[in-house]
Design a protein that fits this description.
By secondary structure, the protein is of the alpha/beta class. It is built from 16 helices and nine strands. A six-stranded parallel beta sheet has the order 3-2-1-4-5-6, sandwiched between helices. Helix 1 packs parallel to helix 7 and helix 9 crosses helix 14. The longest helix is centred in the middle third of the chain and has 29 residues. The protein starts with 7 loop residues before the first strand and ends with a helix.
Length: 305
């Protein structure tokens, strides 16, 4: 990141979130080298001006910054800590930014291993869904050394509009766990409200509009309710992933010895919907669970909005 040389960014994990995040880095002027387990996913990045790498090692070898966006803790451990992984190949002084949502202890282990190899590391999970990734408006909660955080800001601000340092290594993941707890609980309450309103024959579109303008207004009503009413559960963030994230929350809760009565119940509802085959649906499909519990499985499906 010195002088006028273009900063090289290796981006590992070009899925629903990673692909648009990498493209936004290209748009911001970074030299982006992408790698994905399914090679075809790098095509869009290459078409937008990025470069392709056939392995993690090839992607990170000459990178100034390494960004990982992977599904779960085992994936991060394999890609970052494993044989042929990012830390084995990264140059001394490189910056590793893990944007995945993983266990806080995984982030702390990565930070310790990175330090031992002369690599600076941050955990920087994101919130905002696919739309936020595409628009570059993600909220990014960052754990790690504050000076390292300051040096990473140009990269982070190319992907998100709200970027906040929240504490030492692992703190970003802890805040992300809280985020996922709030999101799941809010989706559940919005789902319950829609079923409640529908049971009384209320105009659902009008009700959502007025609720969104008051104290009950929230991002779920704004971003998710229209698709919920249209029964469009195309995944922006899958139930499978939210189930994984709530597992992180519950494990952290047991470790801390605190009670989350509502959160624990919502986690059970998410797990139940997943067990019934809803894992590939958007997390707003919690609406289907509430309908089923209310014996109204097809009521909203048949109503005009």
């Amino acid at each position: 990141m010195e002088g006028t040389r273009v900063t090289a960014v290796a981006f590992i994990g070009l899925g629903v979130m990673g692909a648009p995040m990498a493209q936004n880095l290209v748009k911001a002027g970074f030299d982006v080298i992408g790698h994905n387990r399914s090679p075809a996913r790098t095509d869009t990045l290459v078409a937008s001006g990025g470069r392709r790498a056939d392995s993690v090692a090839d992607a990170v070898r000459d990178a100034d910054v390494i960004v990982t966006m992977l599904p779960d803790s085992p994936d991060v451990e394999a890609v970052v800590l494993g044989e042929g992984g990012a830390l084995e190949t990264a140059r001394h002084g490189a910056l590793l930014v893990d944007a995945s949502t993983v266990r806080p202890e995984t982030s702390r282990a990565v930070a310790a291993a990175a330090e031992a190899r002369g690599v600076r590391a941050l955990d920087a999970p994101v919130s905002g869904g696919e739309a936020g990734a595409v628009e570059g408006t993600l909220s990014i909660m960052v754990g790690g050394d504050e000076e390292v955080y300051e040096s990473a800001l140009p990269v982070l601000r190319a992907m998100g509009s709200t970027v906040v340092h929240v504490g030492p290594a692992g703190a970003g993941q802890t805040v992300k766990a809280a985020n996922q707890l709030i999101v799941a609980g809010t989706i559940e309450l919005v789902s319950e409200a829609l079923v409640f309103l529908d049971s009384h024959g209320v105009d659902l579109g009008a009700a959502v509009s007025v609720l969104a303008g008051g104290l009950a207004g929230n991002a779920v009503l704004q971003r998710k309710a229209p698709a919920m009413l249209a029964r469009d559960f195309t995944p922006g963030f899958r139930i499978d992933l939210h189930h994984k994230d709530l597992g992180i929350v519950l494990a952290a809760v047991r470790e801390a010895g605190v009670a989350l009565p509502l959160g624990t119940h919502v986690a059970g509802l998410v797990a139940s919907l997943r067990a019934q085959g809803g894992g590939s649906l958007d997390h707003s499909a919690l609406l289907l669970q509430v309908e089923s519990l209310s014996g109204r499985d097809n009521e909203l499906r048949s109503r005009p909005v």
